Amino acid sequence: MVRHQAYEGVENSMNRQVPLWLWAVVAYLGVLIIGTADWLTGYELNFFVFYFIPVSVGAWYLGLASSASLAVLSALVWFSVDFLSGHQSASHFHAVWNTTTRLVSFLAIGWSVFRIRELLVRERKSTEMLRQALSEIKVLEAFLPICAQCKKIRNQQGEWQNIETYIMQHSDTRFSHGYCPSCARKALKDAGLDNEKD
């Protein structure tokens, strides 16, 4: 339950509380605005890199499929603007090559931004889970005065406690009692139940 809430918190912080439809409008309108500016300035000024912006916005906020559609739209808009501005290629091959190169570039940028966001979300989720786990751990971090004879520990109030009680109060450790082999032999000998002959 706590971990699921941590995942949702990370996702919500990444979305920045802006509706997805608004990001879609910004991204698709961005392609058209950049295309218009590209057309108005002519083919001598290259606006190629500015198409990366809406493709990146789509990848970050809308996902990989939207990013791919924005990449295709950007390539088509770029090709149309290049054609309408009067740029003449030496052959159809050059026009197809340039458009395909741009399409691959847009797709690569979209995939890269999507992957970066995915890794960032995963890292934030891991950090949140680690922070949650660390908050649940009680750690013994102190200089503990301990009796050399009975092994009781003096607590912060100055009272002497059994080591088991002290550790159980300051951590999630539980104890089970038993005898080590040498103590078991000594207890049997002290009780007169030792069968060994001296």
Q: What would your notes on this structure say?
A:
The chain is rod-shaped. α2 (20-41) runs parallel beside α4 (64-84). The chain has helices spanning 2-15, 20-41, 52-62, 64-84, 92-136, 163-170, 181-190, and strands at 153-154, 160-161. By secondary structure, it is mostly helical. The protein has a two-stranded antiparallel ribbon with strand order 1-2. It folds into two domains: 2-136, no CATH class; 140-198, no CATH class. It is built from seven helices and two strands, in the order αααααββαα.
Could you outline the blueprint of secondary structure elements for this entry?
Layout lengths: L1 H14 L4 H22 L10 H11 L1 H21 L7 H45 L16 E2 L5 E2 L1 H8 L10 H10 L8
Antiparallel strand pairs: 1-2
**Average predicted confidence as pLDDT:** 84
The radius of gyration computed from the alpha-carbon positions, rounded to a whole number of angstroms, is: 35 Å
Number of helices: 7
N- to C-terminal distance: 63 Å
Q: How many runs of DSSP E, i.e. beta strands? A: 2
**What share of the residues does DSSP label as strand, in percent?**
under 5%
- How do the SSEs run, as a string of H and E? HHHHHEEHH
**Tally of structural domains:** 2
Helix content: 55-70%
The largest β sheet comes out as: 2 strands, antiparallel
Strands of the largest sheet, in order across it?
A: 1-2
Name the poorly predicted regions: 1-7
